[in-house]
Design goal:
The chain is of the alpha+beta class and about 1500 residues long. Helix content is about 45%, strand content about 25%. The strands form 11 sheets. Strands 37, 38, 39, 40, 41, 42 and 43 form a 7-stranded mixed β-sheet that branches. Strands 8-7-11-10-9 form a 5-stranded antiparallel β-sheet, sandwiched between helices. Strands 13-12-16-15-14 form a 5-stranded antiparallel β-sheet, with helices on both faces. It comes from Floridaenema aerugineum BLCC-F46.
């Protein structure tokens, strides 16, 4: 059996070769025999020794090195350190595997006794045998049983050891107790359990025995034992003799004697130990202790120890007791002899020197062992660990320790355990693991998974790789056969199932390629194989299978197919001419591009000599050249040259032609590949590049700037003449030299910049440099240098190009320009300071100071002349260290009189010259002593400490005013033209300043006169305004009473029809008078400029509808058709002056209806089409068209003048002629314009436009109800209304109007009374006249609203003013609303309804309600006056739709909040409990 195994393990016929064999021959032999290795022998003799191995690894290394293989022998390339094994050692499979793994080799030669080759073992054969060995079930059960036995014996040993420790512990306690008893014998006898006797001797015999009472007497059988002892002492000779000898010995030696003895009593043997202590010459103390139990324990311990030793001797491991002291010291308290079999150390040596155990550790395992011990010690957890050791003989072993720790009272930790030699198990386990790993790796690398289907158990087992192939989690259970079927691609499922099913039925193996679907949706190709296992009855019991993922192969096949198609497409459609030739030049294949070029077919070219095709028929020389090239290529040479060929239409092109030979394995040329690329365009481009290069050189050498190119070492490569001249050296002296050599003065600045350009590959432009050139030392010159990188073929900078422009002269010009600009800037600052003020003293001071700093001189003065030609210094700026001329003038007023009084005065000449030419006249003296000045003048200048000076005249208008002088005291000075120009400019600015100062003086006088005139005009305007306000109040107040009382009387049912008609006449006349007053006052406001633009947001469509309703009755009475056309794009809500827009439309519509007798009146509204109209701004156009009499052309020009009427208007005798004039001004105020078109007898069209803004949704206007109000609806609170009005008639009017309806009314004659009544009565609403004595309505309103309770009181202003400008002031005072006088009763009642929520009963018993009361407005702010508890109750009542409970809660609201009461009642009566529910919910959330 072993021989058969060895024969399968060893390959006895490996491929061999001698050491002299060359490498190329060896490789050929290996290829022919399909083997990856070859055994090298020393010679060709039969028993030749093995000298090495030659494998694929050496082949790869040699090919990679590029050496000539035919010149190398195997002896020169094989590894001399060969590992072999004797044939006798092959039987130990584990040792063979260990040898292969240790040396990491794949092939192990087997040699005989004389070193001759027997065969070879491969790593694959070892793994195969190990796998078979693992499956024999011979090793693992033995190891497992052995390990179980060791663990069981360790447990028993631990139990016995525990008992032994307990016994030893009790014995130790007993000994301590005996010693304590002996020391305190006399004092503790009564507590003793020992038998204590005093034995007295006489003539060397026992005379008597005296028992000392102890607890021994209380023990069971104590009396019997005492009796038995007395019997022995007195009768039994053997005992007496022995005991008597011991007693005598104790007395003679005067020392304690211990004896042990046994006593039999009642079939029980008692063991005693007695101590004999001499107490006198003839007496001893006998203390006997019953040690029966201890003896029994000792006997049991001896038996246990014997059993333990027997157990230890039979355990296949070493039993140990290992301790780590609290101080860290280690040691073995016990170690069984078996340790010598494992470690090869004697037991005694280990106990004496425990360190030798740890020195045997494999260094790689010691740290993990220490960590395991530390964890076990810390947690007192069982210890189990494996590690490697080197025995005393050098063997490598695996050992395993299992133990349990305990902590002693002194802090020591002790482990009781067993140490096993597990080397064999480890080797087997490693071999099995490696085999399994190799198998898994092989499956993973090959993408092959395996499965097994147990037909009987219907169980499927998958390998890990099969899980990966199917994209499943290997940690999850295998899919069932049915689940496996679902993983097959649907179209392949039936075929796969059929194959597997046939195999199950017939037992035949199968192969199939199918697709699978992974859980992530990916489709893979699988090549599956299956093989059935049959039982004795030829029934299939198991089905084994493999699955190889061949997706990549399938994809490669598809890709190969596509690649071939692409290759053919590329081959045929390539831009190159490509053909395949036999070595003799015969065409085998040719691409379509070449065929198309020659306009020939493939059939006509194949199998034809290449030089006979059309391409090469351009000339015989061309054909001959091709034949020679083909011959050279057939000999193995690569040929390439440029040649002209001919194509269709005899087109001649130049191609880059090449012939590439293809060799077989024997190095023979078997094929030629010819390629031709059309390079005609490239040739033309090369000619262009050559021309361009010539142009660039021409530019380089003739450019007007310096140009050069340098290399990486900063050496000049190329330079033009311009740069050579700039550098001051010939061009030839630059080439090959570096910067430091050519330009040493500026090289330190240039080199870093060049390095930066080379490093960063970035240009450095317009860099300024200053320095010297060698040809002109000491002369500084300026250059602007631009550097740019010149890239090499690798994309990195290899050279630097430079452009150099000399800017020395430009720099000088720039410097002069900068100095000039600096002077101009300073001059500008001086002029700005002059213009900052019109105070001459400030101007003079600033001018002299700034000018002295600008010119850097010692003194600047301003000298003023008087009418008598005398003068004085009025301003001076002097540097430190020089006298002040102003102070000198104060001391000597005649300081300058001597030179001014002389006829030859230079100043006078300067004055006269200045009159002739003011712009250039000046006096500049560089040196006073070298000038033509008079001696007197020089003396004066010397007194001024001046050596040079410059002076110019100053004029105010045409009058010579004075001088501006500049002095240089420290030195003579040549005045520059630019400096003279600056002084002249400042002198001009001083002249302007003098004129401006004069104008300021005149302007101030005129302003004073205008201010007085304005004050007079303002006083007159104020008087006019007061008059208008007074007139408005005085005229409208009586009208209020007239119209009001007439309306009340009309409602009286007792008034006769005649009187009613008279009252209506009074009412119409009053309305007419009111309109006249409004027009006159509006016109007065326009003329005085007091008309203002008051923007409000309103609903335009609703306003137009109200106007239509207002005029409908009048139109119907006259038989006219009234139309109102509004374009769809007209917005509903706009923001503009609503009042003025309404007034304009009232005027235009009123005139149209008034003057039109038949036909129609149409109001049209649309948007103007503007190109640049913003999203928020609109322009609205209104047209009023009528079919009236029309207007004559000569009257249209005066139509919009105040108090102007047409002929038709004058005939009617109505109106003031102000309506259109007012309308025109109102339209202009709203940003628009009004125009008219009219024809006599046809009609008129008035058109105007206004600018407006889009506005958000606004509250609907109150629609007046013209029905007569009879009274208040029942079930409402009593509303308290206070009338604050100083005119008694107006109060009476309101009382007559309100009291009959059910309101409770009180009166106040002024604001003070109103405040007093409000404090005590708390009215719901106050009608407040704004103009009253004592306290006006503004102050009364402010005081009421300032009080917390006043915020709930509604105050509506009553005013007789038509000035809309007063409305903001009224609202700012705290009024909630306002109503002008005279008022209409309908409007007044609707105002009350709006603010208090009042409901009325009308004459026809209907209940028209305002827009505000139809849908009452309730907000969370309204409810915040009540408590949260009340709001919660209201919310619950609304949610329960309990209107009665809501009414009861509303009754709890204080009367001061009457508006809230009315809103809630209206909501209940209109069944809108949903609004109450929503608002209360918001309140509760807040």
């Amino acid at each position: 059996m072993e021989n058969q195994e060895n024969s399968s393990l060893i390959n006895y016929h490996p491929l061999t070769a001698t050491a002299e064999t060359t490498v190329d021959v060896a490789i050929a032999l290996m290829n022919q025999n399909f083997t990856s290795y070859l055994v090298v022998l020393a010679n060709a003799e039969p028993d030749s020794p093995v000298v090495g191995l030659f494998t694929e690894r050496e082949i790869i290394q040699l090919i990679a090195s590029g050496v000539q293989l035919s010149n190398l022998s195997l002896a020169s390339v094989i590894n001399k350190e060969l590992i072999t094994i004797n044939e006798s050692a092959v039987k130990d499979l584990l040792f063979v595997n260990y040898l292969v793994q240790k040396h990491q080799i794949n092939y192990l030669p087997v040699v005989g006794k004389i070193g001759n080759l027997i065969g070879i073992i491969t790593q694959q054969s070892i793994q195969k045998h190990l796998l078979e060995a693992m499956n024999t079930t011979e090793i693992n059960p033995k190891l497992t049983a052995l390990q179980n036995l060791v663990e069981q014996q360790a447990i028993e040993l631990k139990t016995l050891n525990d008992k032994l420790k307990t016994t030893i512990h009790y014995r130790h306690l007993a000994e301590q107790k005996i010693k304590a008893t002996e020391e305190k014998m006399r004092t503790v006898f009564e507590a003793m359990t020992d038998l204590v006797m005093i034995i007295n001797l006489q003539e060397e015999r026992i005379k008597n025995v005296e028992f000392i009472p102890t607890n021994f007497n209380n023990l069971a059988h104590s009396n019997e034992l005492i009796t038995r002892i007395l019997e022995i002492l007195l009768t039994e000779e053997i005992f007496i003799t022995n005991w008597l000898e011991e007693i005598k010995k104790s007395l003679i030696k005067n020392q304690n004697i211990n004896i042990d003895y046994n006593l039999n009593l009642a079939d029980k043997e008692y063991c005693f130990t007695a101590t004999i202590s001499p107490i006198s010459e003839k007496s001893v103390l006998w203390v006997a202790r019953d040690i029966t139990a201890r003896r029994q324990a000792e006997q049991a311990l001896e038996k246990s120890e014997a059993r333990f030793q027997k157990l230890v001797a039979n355990i296949p491991g070493a039993v140990y007791e290992f301790v780590i002291n609290s101080n860290g010291a280690i040691g073995f308290e016990y170690m069984s002899p078996s340790i010598e079999e494992i470690y090869e150390f004697p037991q005694e040596e280990v106990l004496e020197n425990p360190q030798i155990m740890f020195d045997a550790f494999d260094p790689e395992d010691y740290q993990s062992y220490q960590e395991a011990v530390a964890i076990s010690s810390q947690n007192l957890a069982p210890f189990s660990h494996e590690w490697r050791i080197f025995t005393a003989s050098g063997k490598l072993k695996w050992v395993q320790a299992k133990s349990r720790p305990e902590r002693r009272e002194n802090g020591d930790t002790v482990w009781y355990g067993v140490l096993f030699d597990v080397s064999d198990r480890k080797i087997a386990s490693q071999a099995l693991q490696e085999s399994q790993t190799n198998l898994a790796d092989a499956q993973r690398v090959a993408h092959i998974g395996s499965w097994k289907f147990d037909v009987i158990k219907r169980k499927v087992t998958w390998s890990e790789e099969l899980f990966h192939i199917f994209g499943l989690d290997p940690t999850k259970p295998e899919p069932t056969f049915e689940e496996h079927l679902q993983l097959i691609y649907p179209e392949d499922r039936d075929a796969w199932y059929q194959k597997v099913n046939d195999s199950l039925l017939t037992g035949k193996s199968y192969t199939i390629i199918n697709r699978i679907i992974r859980p992530d949706g990916e489709i893979r190709y699988i090549e599956g194989r299956g093989e059935a296992i049959l039982n004795d009855a030829q029934e299939v019991i198991q089905l084994y299978g493999t699955a190889m993922d061949i997706t990549e192969r399938k994809q490669a096949e598809i890709a190969l197919r596509e690649s071939e198609e692409k290759f053919r497409a590329i081959f045929d459609r390539g831009i190159q001419f490509v053909s395949l030739l036999q070595p003799d030049g015969t065409i085998l294949e040719i691409n379509q591009t070449a065929l198309n070029f020659a306009e020939t077919t493939r059939e006509s070219a194949i199998c034809k000599p290449f030089w006979e095709t059309k391409w090469w028929t351009i000339s015989e020389a061309t054909q001959s050249e091709l034949q020679l090239a083909i011959a050279a290529a057939a000999a193995g040479a690569f040929m390439r040259y440029e040649v002209n060929v001919i194509g269709k239409n005899n087109q001649i092109v130049t191609i880059d032609f090449s012939l590439r030979p293809i060799f077989n394995q024997q190095g023979e040329v078997t094929l030629l590949i010819s390629e031709g690329r059309d390079i005609s365009d490239r040739k033309a481009l090369e000619q262009k590049l050559a021309l361009r290069e010539a142009l660039l050189n021409a530019f380089f050498y003739s450019a007007p700037v310096g140009l050069c190119i340098t290399d990486e070492e900063f050496r000049y490569i190329k330079i033009n003449q311009q740069l050579a001249e700039i550098n001051g050296l010939p061009a030839s002296e630059h080439i090959g030299k570096t910067f430091p050599q050519v330009l040493p003065g500026i090289a330190s600045s240039l080199v870093p910049l060049y390095q930066q350009v080379l490093t960063r590959n970035e240009a450095a432009l317009n860099q300024e440099f200053r320095g010297e050139v060698p040809s002109q030392p000491g002369v500084l010159r300026d250059w602007i240098v631009s550097l740019f990188p010149i890239l090499g073929e690798d994309g990195h900078s290899r050279n630097v190009g430079a452009v150099v422009v000399e800017v020395t002269e430009r720099k000088r010009a720039e410097k002069a320009l900068q100095e000039s600009a600096k002077r101009e800037q300073a001059l500008t600052q001086v002029i700005q300071k002059i213009r900052q003020t019109l105070e001459l003293s400030e101007i003079f001071s600033a001018t002299t100071t700034e000018l002295r700093q600008l010119l850097d001189c010692d003194r600047v003065t301003i000298y003023r002349f008087h009418n008598d030609c005398s003068g004085e210094f009025v301003a001076e700026s002097v540097a430190d260290g020089w006298i002040s001329l102003l102070e000198a003038q104060n001391q000597n007023p005649q300081l300058t009189a001597c030179i001014l009084n002389k006829q030859e005065c230079v100043i006078k000449k300067l004055n006269q010259s200045e009159r002739e030419n003011r712009t250039t006249n000046y006096l500049a003296v560089a040196d006073i002593h070298q000038s033509e000045l008079t001696n007197c003048h020089i003396e004066i200048l010397e007194q001024f400490q001046s050596k040079a000076y410059l002076t110019i005249p100053i004029y105010s208008g045409n009058q010579f005013w004075g001088l501006l002088a500049v002095y240089q005291n420290s030195r003579i000075r040549q005045w520059q033209e630019s400096e003279i120009k600056v002084v002249l400019q400042i002198g001009t600015q001083l002249a302007v300043a003098l004129q401006q100062a004069e104008l300021l003086s005149q302007t101030q006088r005129q302003s004073l006169e205008l201010m007085k005139a304005k004050e007079a005009a303002d006083a007159a305007n104020y008087a006019k305004s007061q008059f208008l306000a007074k007139m408005s109040h005085e005229l409208r107040t009586p009208l209020n009473a007239i119209l009001g009382f007439s309306q009340i009387m009309v409602r009286n049912k007792s008034v006769s029809s005649e009187h009613r008609e008279h009252l209506e006449i009074i009412n119409r006349s009053g309305e007419h008078l009111l309109n006249l007053i409004n027009d006159i006052l509006s016109m007065a406001k326009i003329e005085s400029g007091q008309m203002s633009f008051n923007e409000t947001c309103f609903n335009l469509h609703q306003m137009l509808e109200l106007l239509k309703d207002m005029f409908r009755l009048k139109a119907q009475q006259k038989g006219l058709k009234l139309n109102c056309v509004i374009a769809p794009e007209v917005p509903r809500n706009i923001k503009t002056d609503e009042s003025k827009l309404r007034q304009v439309l009232l005027n235009l519509l009123g005139n149209a209806i008034k003057f039109t007798q038949t036909g129609y009146v149409t109001l049209t509204v649309f948007l103007a089409q503007l190109e640049a109209q913003s999203a928020e701004d609109v322009q609205i156009v209104f047209t009023v068209t009528d079919t009236g009499p029309g207007i004559a052309p000569n009257e249209i020009t005066t139509l919009f003048q105040p108090f102007s009427q047409t002929q038709t208007g004058r005939q009617t005798g109505q109106g003031t002629g102000l309506g259109l004039a007012i309308s025109q001004q109102f339209v202009k105020l709203m940003g628009g314009k009004i125009v008219v078109e009219s024809q006599l007898g046809i009609g008129s069209i008035f058109t105007f436009n206004i600018k407006a803004k889009l506005a958000p949704e606004t509250e609907k206007n109150i629609r007046l109800n013209t029905q007569e109000v009879i009274c208040l609806e029942p079930n409402q609170p009593t509303y308290r209304i206070l009338l604050a009005e100083d005119i008694k008639e107006n109060r009476q009017l309101l009382v007559k109007l309100l009291v009959p309806l059910g309101f409770e009314v009180r009166e106040a004659e002024n604001g003070q009374q109103a405040v007093t009544i409000w404090e005590s009565w708390q009215p719901h609403l106050i009608w407040m006249d704004m103009r009253m004595p004592v306290m006006d309505g503004y102050e009364a309103t402010r005081q009421i609203k300032a009080h917390p309770q006043g915020k709930n009181t509604v105050i509506i202003a009553l005013t007789a003013s038509v000035f809309e400008e007063q409305q903001p002031a009224i609202l700012a005072a705290g009024c909630n609303d306002f109503m002008p006088k005279p008022f209409r009763s309908e409007v007044l009642l609707e105002k009350i309804a709006k603010h208090l929520g009042v409901r009325y009963i009308y004459a026809d018993n209907s209940h028209p309600i305002t827009e505000h009361s139809l849908i009452p407005t309730l907000t969370p702010e309204d409810l915040k006056v009540m408590s949260q508890e009340w709001i919660a109750q209201l919310h619950q009542a609304a949610a329960a739709v309990d209107d009665q409970l809501v009414i009861e809660l509303v009754e709890q609201i204080p009367e001061t909040y009457i508006k809230l009461v009315n809103i809630l009642i209206n909501l209940v009566e209109n069944f809108r409990l949903d609004i109450i529910l929503k608002i209360t919910e918001l309140c509760l959330k807040e």
